[in-house]
Design a protein that fits this description.
Elements (H helix, E strand, L loop, with lengths): L2 H11 L2 H4 L4 E3 L2 E19 L5 E20 L2 E6 L3 H25 L1
Antiparallel strand pairs: 1-2, 2-3, 3-4
Protein name: Sporulation protein
Keywords: Membrane, Transmembrane, Transmembrane helix
């Protein structure tokens, strides 16, 4: 697979179908799941001192739940997804910064 084919595959992989899932309908309630999707790709060509040429490339796609649109009786609402790992990570970073800043104040003062 050459670089152009890899980049074309990457571009085709990041589509709206990866962002919005199929709607679920039950008892007059419709739920449309949504995600945050990102990706990238790259490639290159080159040659060695013997004159041999080569090329290569790659891409990656990542995603995480963002929430869902809920349609009930003609009213649309947004329900965000809660990511406990992200909440714990942010809380840990905030706590670490706080503890480091308190320690510096004690040393200086």
């Amino acid at each position: 697979m050459n670089v152009t084919e890899v980049l074309s595959t990457a571009r085709d992989s990041i589509t709206v179908k990866r962002v919005f899932g199929d709607p679920y309908e039950q008892n007059g309630l419709t739920v449309i799941p949504a995600a945050v999707v990102g990706g990238g790709g790259g490639g290159g060509t080159g040659h060695d001192e013997k004159g041999q040429e080569g090329e290569g490339g790659g891409f990656g796609v990542t995603g995480r739940p963002a929430g869902a649109f809920v349609i009930n009786n003609g009213q649309v609402s947004w329900r965000p997804a809660v990511d406990p790992n992200r909440i714990i990570t942010v809380a840990g970073v905030v706590l670490a910064v706080f503890l480091l800043s308190v320690r510096r104040r004690r040393v200086r003062g």
